[in-house]
Amino acid sequence: MKAIKLAIVVTGLMIFSAVATLAMVNHGAEQFAIDGGSKGEVPFPHKIHQEILGDCNACHDVFPMELGVIKTMKAEKKLKRKQVMNKTCIKCHRALKSKGESYGPISCNDCHKKK
Ligand code: HEC
Ligand code: HEC
Ligand code: HEC
């Protein structure tokens, strides 16, 4: 009897902590600007992407979850200039367009509002 009660309590705790961990995931800001070097800032709707894609790693396998990290990694030569732009952002938007699904901007001025 005691063993069964203990098992129930332990299972309950495991479920509780799993749910708590999920709720605690930091989603970051809903909207911010990415540093676009010489081309000025790129407004980025973070939350829209999180909701539509449902996969953090669509972007965060390339750079960690930290504001300003793309700029830092470019300065440290861990990312090439325009690498995220071409290999992450535009690559996905193009692929969606060719599949006939709703997609994000592909032309320069739709992302680079300045200049
Ligand atoms: C479409 C691309 C993309 C997806 C998908 C994405 N992120 Fe991000 N995320 C970014 C970019 C870009 C930055 C900022 C990088 C920079 O400023 O250099 C960022 C930054 C962050 C930050 C730091 C921002 C802050 O306000 O402190 C957190 C936390 C974060 N992301 C969490 C997540 C989580 C959790 C998911 C999945 C639910 C997710 N992201 C999905 C692109 C994305
Ligand atoms: C989907 C949005 C998007 C589109 C479309 C886009 N860019 Fe970018 N661009 C970015 C982002 C994000 C960065 C910063 C990250 C990086 O360097 O990969 C950037 C960075 C740049 C940089 C600066 C690189 C540096 O380090 O100084 C240049 C130059 C640039 N883009 C030119 C262009 C041109 C030209 C086009 C059109 C052919 C274009 N971009 C289209 C999002 C975009
Ligand atoms: C894996 C796919 C994917 C990646 C990676 C991705 N996007 Fe998108 N993006 C989308 C989709 C899907 C939409 C269309 C959302 C909609 O239906 O309005 C979109 C829309 C957008 C929009 C327009 C949002 C609006 O309000 O209409 C901007 C701006 C944008 N993306 C910028 C970026 C930038 C900058 C990056 C790179 C840091 C990026 N995206 C990376 C899939 C992606």
Automatic annotation (TrEMBL):
<keyword id="KW-0479">Metal-binding</keyword>
<dbReference type="GO" id="GO:0046872">
    <property type="term" value="F:metal ion binding"/>
</dbReference>
<protein>
    <submittedName>
        <fullName>Cytochrome c7</fullName>
    </submittedName>
</protein>
<dbReference type="InterPro" id="IPR036280">
    <property type="entry name" value="Multihaem_cyt_sf"/>
</dbReference>
<feature type="binding site" description="axial binding residue">
    <location>
        <position position="92"/>
    </location>
    <ligand>
        <name>heme c</name>
    </ligand>
</feature>
<feature type="binding site" description="axial binding residue">
    <location>
        <position position="112"/>
    </location>
    <ligand>
        <name>heme c</name>
    </ligand>
</feature>
<feature type="domain" description="Class III cytochrome C">
    <location>
        <begin position="37"/>
        <end position="112"/>
    </location>
</feature>
<feature type="binding site" description="axial binding residue">
    <location>
        <position position="89"/>
    </location>
    <ligand>
        <name>heme c</name>
    </ligand>
</feature>
<keyword id="KW-0408">Iron</keyword>
<dbReference type="InterPro" id="IPR020942">
    <property type="entry name" value="Cyt_c_III_dom"/>
</dbReference>
<keyword id="KW-0813">Transport</keyword>
<feature type="binding site" description="axial binding residue">
    <location>
        <position position="108"/>
    </location>
    <ligand>
        <name>heme c</name>
    </ligand>
</feature>
<dbReference type="GO" id="GO:0020037">
    <property type="term" value="F:heme binding"/>
</dbReference>
<feature type="binding site" description="axial binding residue">
    <location>
        <position position="60"/>
    </location>
    <ligand>
        <name>heme c</name>
    </ligand>
</feature>
<feature type="binding site" description="axial binding residue">
    <location>
        <position position="111"/>
    </location>
    <ligand>
        <name>heme c</name>
    </ligand>
</feature>
<dbReference type="InterPro" id="IPR002322">
    <property type="entry name" value="Cyt_c_III"/>
</dbReference>
<dbReference type="Pfam" id="PF02085">
    <property type="entry name" value="Cytochrom_CIII"/>
</dbReference>
<feature type="binding site" description="axial binding residue">
    <location>
        <position position="46"/>
    </location>
    <ligand>
        <name>heme c</name>
    </ligand>
</feature>
<keyword id="KW-0732">Signal</keyword>
<feature type="signal peptide">
    <location>
        <begin position="1"/>
        <end position="20"/>
    </location>
</feature>
<dbReference type="GO" id="GO:0009055">
    <property type="term" value="F:electron transfer activity"/>
</dbReference>
<feature type="binding site" description="axial binding residue">
    <location>
        <position position="49"/>
    </location>
    <ligand>
        <name>heme c</name>
    </ligand>
</feature>
<keyword id="KW-0249">Electron transport</keyword>
<feature type="binding site" description="axial binding residue">
    <location>
        <position position="93"/>
    </location>
    <ligand>
        <name>heme c</name>
    </ligand>
</feature>
<keyword id="KW-0349">Heme</keyword>
<feature type="binding site" description="axial binding residue">
    <location>
        <position position="56"/>
    </location>
    <ligand>
        <name>heme c</name>
    </ligand>
</feature>
<feature type="binding site" description="axial binding residue">
    <location>
        <position position="59"/>
    </location>
    <ligand>
        <name>heme c</name>
    </ligand>
</feature>
